[in-house]
């Protein structure tokens, strides 16, 4: 399967977001791939507020089920969450469980006025009623495949496809 160019998707997502960015908007990236995408978007769009990053590992209930072993990293939201307008960024939107977990963690910091979702790729397969307002691309993939975003030493992004190992429990 031919995967899209992650750098081109990032450029497309940047242009989608350009008209909505102003000094009141904050951006948060979800570890790890979402934080990479958010960092690049944050730089390209010149946000006034500092970039936030979230690690949602403690809010996920299915990491071991899908064969992931989280490496917990600290969350950092260096702006006032209460009443803020937030663009939440992830690399791949699939079931919606990562986004639900991220929203739960954001509410631990305060009650934002709004949260919009931006993702590099929406691959469908939602299990929760979550939708991205901004997406670099929409792809359809089999349930046993996982899109993985990689970042090289120069910060360049690329995509790969791998099999998901489902737990037998």
Automatic annotation (TrEMBL):
Residues 7-132 form the Phosphoribosyltransferase domain. Keywords: Glycosyltransferase, Transferase. One of its GO terms (molecular function) is glycosyltransferase activity. The keyword Phosphoprotein does not apply. It holds the Pfam family Pribosyltran. This is Uracil phosphoribosyltransferase.
């Amino acid at each position: 399967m031919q995967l899209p160019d992650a750098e081109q998707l990032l450029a497309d997502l940047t242009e989608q977001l350009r008209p909505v960015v102003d000094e009141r908007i904050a951006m948060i990236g979800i570890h790890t791939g979402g934080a990479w995408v958010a960092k690049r978007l944050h730089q390209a769009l010149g946000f006034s507020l500092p970039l936030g990053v979230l690690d949602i590992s403690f809010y996920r209930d299915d990491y071991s089920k899908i064969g992931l072993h989280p490496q917990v990293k600290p969350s950092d939201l260096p702006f006032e969450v209460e009443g803020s307008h937030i663009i939440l960024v992830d690399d791949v939107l699939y079931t919606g469980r990562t986004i639900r977990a991220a929203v739960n963690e954001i509410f631990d910091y305060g009650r934002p006025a709004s949260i919009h979702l931006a993702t590099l790729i929406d691959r469908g397969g939602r299990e929760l009623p979550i939708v991205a307002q901004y997406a670099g691309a929409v792809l359809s993939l089999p349930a046993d495949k996982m899109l993985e975003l990689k970042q090289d030493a120069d910060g360049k992004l690329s995509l790969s496809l791998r099999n998901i190992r489902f737990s037998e429990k």
